[in-house]
Structure formats: C-alpha cells, structure tokens
Write a structure and sequence with these properties.
This protein is of the alpha/beta class and about 270 residues long. The protein has a single domain (about 5-105, about 175-270), classed as Rossmann fold (3-Layer(aba) Sandwich). Helix content is about 40%, strand content about 25%. The protein has eleven helices and ten strands. The protein has a six-stranded mixed sheet with strand order 6-7-8-3-9-10. Strands 2-1-4-5 form a four-stranded antiparallel sheet, with helices on one face. The mean pLDDT is about 85.
C-alpha cells in the first residue's frame, strides 16, 4: 500500500552571510494511513522543518536544496504553486504551539468551529450549532453550549487548544501536523489535553506528525518516533513503539511497564548526538 506521505532525502538550507547552512540534511520517512509519527530533537535542531515544508510554510529565505515531499503520490516540491496551495488548504492542516495562531480573536468559537460546515454542507444554523456543541463536548470542554458564545481570549489555554483542534478537524484533512501543540500549557493541562487529542486521532484514524521536544509525549502518542540529531538535522534513529497495554491511550501509556525502556532508549540517542 502506498504511504500517505513519503519524504525522501530532504535537505533544507538557509543563507548565512555570503554562504549557506543546512538546517535539515537528507531526512527520509513515510507515514501510513492512521499512523501517528513523533519527531523529537533538541531545541533548534530543525525538527519542525519537515512539517513546515509539507505545508509550504517554510520561512521565505529557506530553500529546499534537495529531496522530494510526496503526498498521496504527488511531489509537492515540483507541483505548481496554485495546485499546491489548494491541496495544502484542503488535505493537510496544522495545529501550532499557540492556539491563537489558528483562532481568529474577533470571532466567537461557534462561528470558527462551524465555518467549514457552512462552506461545505447545506446544514442550517440550528444543525451546525448542534454539531459544534457535540464536537466541543467530545474533547472534554465543560459547558460546550456556553463556550459557543465566547471569544478565544475568554478561554483558558487548554480550552483554546482543544477548540483549535476541533476547528482543524472540522476541515476533514487527510493529514494533521502538530507542531509543539501542548508546550504552552501547564503540566497537568498538557497531560489532559494530549490525552483527549490522542484519543480523537486514534478513534478517527487520522494520520499525524507530532513534533515535540518532550520524549514522554512522543512515546505516549506516537506509533513510531524519529530521533533527530543536532543541526543539521538527520534521522539518527527510528523507534517503533509497541507498549504492552490494552486499550492504549496517551495517559495510560505512561504507566505501561515498557514505557521507561523506550524513554531511556530515546534519551540516550538524543544525548549521544547532542
């Protein structure tokens, strides 16, 4: 079966004075349907670059020096810009570290979460409202009816991140990219939100790339973890996660008997290549 995403020998470089430096060097990996792939590396290692490259969101001075970015069998690097914009806008979606990046501060939550339903369905306002309330409830948000009438700044960080995810999933993307989505949250909220989001991804069969500096987060949510070296980032090791656990969730994964084994393996790999 052809993978949903296949990245081959991707290298990304930036200008530096009269020369250039490589932020990413020869990265290769693939993602199958329903698979969650974690990407871990030290700060500044370039671990977000592959996700940004897929979305066409690299900084203006960045250049893809070599390699291919194939999505559903088509190379995004050689694709015409207009077609790529359409594909990235409809087939892929990204959740950022700060949810206010993807939420409009002047629109109420119901309007933002229900936007895609208004555009792509013939549902009336009452039916859209009902679906939005249900979606907010499914990610563990209290009083979803009341939240519909609130603005993003009136919600806590955890509530905003859940709302941002629901808004993103409402677009029904084939691939979700999560770039340090929980790092702005306090520890307890982070655990709860990652657990909710992980359950939603698994129940919906939604494939995702999770970029994080948190080893425990990667192990608890991902099926496979890519360990990146220091800059220029290369894939140092690929760790398949097979926890001895029934009905695995992100939160329960942390108590699995072999969780520590995976943590120590990835920790050692990161330290050896720092």
């Amino acid at each position: 079966m052809e993978p949903l995403v296949e990245i081959k020998n991707l290298s990304i470089r930036f200008p530096e004075g009269n020369s250039t430096f490589e932020a990413v060097k020869g990265i290769s990996f693939s993602i199958g349907k329903g698979e969650i792939v974690g990407v871990v590396g030290e700060s500044g290692s370039g671990k977000s670059m592959s996700a940004l490259a897929l979305m066409g969101l690299l900084p203006k001075d960045a250049e893809i020096a070599s390699g291919s970015l194939c999505f559903q069998g088509e190379d995004l690097v050689t694709m015409k810009p207009e077609k790529r914009r359409q594909l990235c806008g409809s087939k892929m979606a990204m959740v950022f570290q700060e949810p206010m990046t993807s939420l409009n501060p002047v629109l109420k939550i119901e309007r933002q979460v229900g936007e895609s339903l208004r555009i792509h369905t013939k549902l009336g306002n009452a039916e859209i409202h009902e679906r939005v309330v249900q979606a907010l409830s499914e990610v563990g948000l209290p009083d979803p009816e009341g939240l519909c009438g609130k603005y993003p700044h009136e919600l806590s960080g955890g509530m905003r991140q859940r709302a941002a995810l629901i808004r993103t999933l409402a677009l029904k993307p084939d691939l979700l990219l999560l770039d340090e989505p929980f790092s702005a949250l306090d520890y307890q909220t982070r655990l709860n939100v990652s657990d909710d989001i992980g359950k939603i991804l698994k129940s919906s069969g939604k494939p995702a790339i999770l970029v994080t500096h948190d080893i425990s987060e990667a192990i608890s949510m991902a099926d496979r973890v890519l360990v990146l070296s220091a800059r220029p980032a290369t894939v140092q090791k690929v760790v398949d996660i097979h926890l001895t656990l029934e009905n695995r969730t992100p939160l329960s994964s942390r108590n699995a008997p072999d969780f520590k084994k995976y943590f120590n393996l990835i920790w050692k790999e990161l330290n050896e290549n720092a």
